[in-house]
Specification:
Helices cover 16% and strands 18% of the residues. The protein contains 5 helices and 14 strands. A two-stranded antiparallel sheet has the order 1-8. A two-stranded antiparallel sheet has the order 2-5. A two-stranded antiparallel sheet has the order 3-4. A hairpin with a 5-residue loop joins strand 9 (230-236) and strand 10 (242-246). Helix 1 (17-24) crosses helix 3 (86-100).
Amino acid sequence: MTFFNPKEEVLDIQLTQYGRHLLSKGKMKPVYYAFFDEGVIYDSTHGGFEESKNDAEARIQEETPSLKPRHCFTGRDEFLFDGVGDTEDREELGIYEKLHILTEPLGTSDLNSTKSPYFSMNFLKGELASSKEYQTGSTRTEKTGSQAETYTSYSQQVLKIPQLEVDIEYKIAVSDPLDRGVRFEVDETLSPGRIYANDMAVYVGSDEVLILAEEGNTTCDRENFDIEVFEMTGLTGSLGEEILNPLSFIKPIKMVENNILLDPMEARKIAGQAYGDIVLDDSYVEYYINIDTDKEIDRNIICDSLGKIKRQGRTIYSPCGIDLDCPDLEDVIATDIYDSDSDPDKC
């Protein structure tokens, strides 16, 4: 562990172990970057000392040393690439580094607000089964020496992750194929599509969950959320942490990129479908559920959900407001009347 020399050094870049592996395979293609400040204590009460607000600025900007980046976060005994299962070991190492290392990048706050950003979630369709103020993420724990069984040492930071739980109920009905008469929307992909000996068929449908998720006290960008889906394997790693298996989304074929019309073959190549359609297996999210966002959601579904909220005499608060033309629903969405509606790029 070394420190920056502020008089001579400004920037230092290091690749993680998994990043070096990707670079050796020619698959290292960095796209995004983020900034972190995990070595800075902003509130002196968390550091066990007292100081005035005027002293905090000088301490943070001038007196706090900056650590050079670490690039190795596991011991050699944990991931020993000995030619047996090296591909799986490197993938597990990459997942571990992504989930547990540098997990809290700096965000973007609204320059007109003196408050911290926050998340706002409204269930427009479906119900919240339960919630927890936070649940700590999976951590590596270890016991060494003659320590008691109740003693636990953590090898990484413990994250406070808010938890919202929703139960999806599947509906099943037996009906005449010529006159279904079912009272729910049938999911054709889940229904067997088979007519049995009694000339009846089985139909399956599921309740949809429609969530309005926004971030307040920040810039209201329309695509400022990243969705990741993990499978809980029930397995544990070498030091007791739960192993999560990341699932992939099928990349859609887009014929226009950067306002340029693409050749059909080139568009399929970008989407990873140059050699035919993707075979849907349990490594993809769509194998289990369908997740639609923003403009992918049918406008009528959103308007019907807002109409039900209005008939119940309720309103919902939206930090950014919904840009949706639904008739007779002007009083359902409540926004901050003192917030600016100007384009921040033009200010």
